[in-house]
Amino acid sequence: MFFKIFFLNKSFTLTVVGVSSFYFGMWWNKFNTSSNPYISSFKIFDAVNADNVVSMDSQITSLKEQRISQIMRYGFPGMDNIRSYSNFVLSYDQRNRIPHWVLEHLTPESVKYNSNVDRSLCEFFEDTSFHPFFRATNKDYKNSGFDRGHLAAAGNHKSNQELVNQTFVLSNIAPQVGNGFNRDAWNQLEKYVRKKARYNKNVYVCSGPMFLPKKGDDGKLWVKYQVIGDNHVAVPTHFYKIIVIEGNDSKFYLESYIMPNQVIPKNIPLKDFQMPLELIERASGLQFFKQLTLDKFAKINN
Q1: What is the CATH number of the domain that holds 222?
Q2: Residue among 105, 150, 157, 238 flagged as catalytic
Q3: Residue 181: Cβ within 10 Å count
Q4: pLDDT digits 0-9 by tens, 105-163
Q5: CA-to-CA distance for 101 and 113, rounded, in angstroms?
Q6: Is 150 considered catalytic here?
Q7: CB of 184 closer than 8 Å to CB of 266
Q8: What does the pLDDT look like over 62-84, one tens digit per residue?
């Protein structure tokens, strides 16, 4: 089965092949903390939900455990190479050296501006919880022509210097076109998310890369993407962002977006990039916010 989606302005065409995916039996494994000071480890038992997040490190406080549970309240999209930071949780793709997904929980308090936070003090750093074979490095991105694009946006975590520092870990980063995408259209979407967070009770955001097929000159569908650096960091063809908003009325609202990783004309409104959640799930092989069924949302992509 496949879907063809045409953006309203006819500028882009997406072809998404519905593919099945599988997960290896990862939930009995322990995730090692190694030398990365920001990483916590925890064990996942039978069901994939927030109630089953249990700390395996005696140094992790109950407050940290509660924060992980809060971020993952409505379910894990997948179980591969999970790492938790103070304000976001991610799943890392060791083959492609980029995230599978990154999930954040935002509130009016967490996105509040703090004049003492200085982004210029932040530096991109390797995620040392992964074997060197599977890490992206800053050298991979140097002179590649691509930005080191955040999945958990730095601007979402500027209430505290340490929190924004953590977003610069390279396991939260993927290659993005700079002008016209990372610094423009994608940035506008991130700002839109923060606006929602300022005026609603809770906002849950899941972001990730996509590798979508395109019809070749031979008429066949092909998935083709560039890799950069000695570690062959994969350059996604597209990115998704799924937003669950818990309004002050305690009702839930869902918005889901796909953006092509290319220069996007500035006159295209964000709404044109809204896509059905099912399409993102079929293309990514992941299911999002499984604890919230679609009938629980007051509005979807409105």
Answers
A1: 3.40.570.10
A2: 150
A3: 21
A4: 999 999 998 999 999 999 999 999 999 999 999 999 999 999 999 999 999 999 999 99
A5: 26
A6: yes
A7: yes
A8: 667 788 888 888 888 888 899 99
Query: Quick one: residue 78, left, alpha or beta (phi over 0 = left, psi -120 to 50 = alpha)?
Result: beta
Q: Is the dihedral of CA 150, 151, 155, 159 positive or negative?
A: negative
Distance CA 57, CA 293 (A): 33
Strand-pair partners of 257:
241, 274
Domain carrying residue 63: 2-300
Q: Contact at 8 Å (CB) between 140 and 170?
A: no
Please indicate whether residue 25 or residue 2 has the higher confidence score (pLDDT). Answer: 2
Q: How many domains does the chain have?
A: 1
Rounded CA separation 10/142 (Å): 34
Single-letter amino acid, residue 137: T
DSSP state letter for 293: -
Check: CB of residue 285 under 8 Å from CB of residue 19. Answer: yes
Tokens of 227: 């890799």
Q: What pLDDT does residue 242 have?
A: 98
